[in-house]
Each structure stands twice: as C-alpha cells, then as structure tokens.
Amino acid sequence: MRNSPKCDCGAEKQTIYHIAFVCPIYAYRGPRIDCLTTSSAFIKWLEELELDL
Ligand SMILES: [Zn+2]
C-alpha cells in the first residue's frame, strides 16, 4: 500500500492524466489518440502498469 499520492518520478500528484501523458517514468509512448479509441496498444500499456490507481 502506498501512503503518499506522490508519483515515483517526484510529481506532487499521481493522477491518471499525469501517468498517461506527463510522467517521465510511466507515460504512454504511443499516440494520444490511442487512449480515446482504447486501442489494443493502449490497453496493453494499461495492463502492464503495476500501479494502484
Ligand atoms: Zn510521475
């Protein structure tokens, strides 16, 4: 269990937006349209994230 909402990269808040698009550690590397269309690549990325959101 995490006690802090801070991200592993040092960001103050570990939001889904931060993780998906901003975080230097976890951000999705593919095109952002993938998250709107929930492409298979984006689903795979989500599944491989080992985070409790
Ligand atoms: Zn981060």
Automatic annotation (TrEMBL):
Protein's name in the database: Uncharacterized protein
The organism of origin for this protein: Cinara cedri
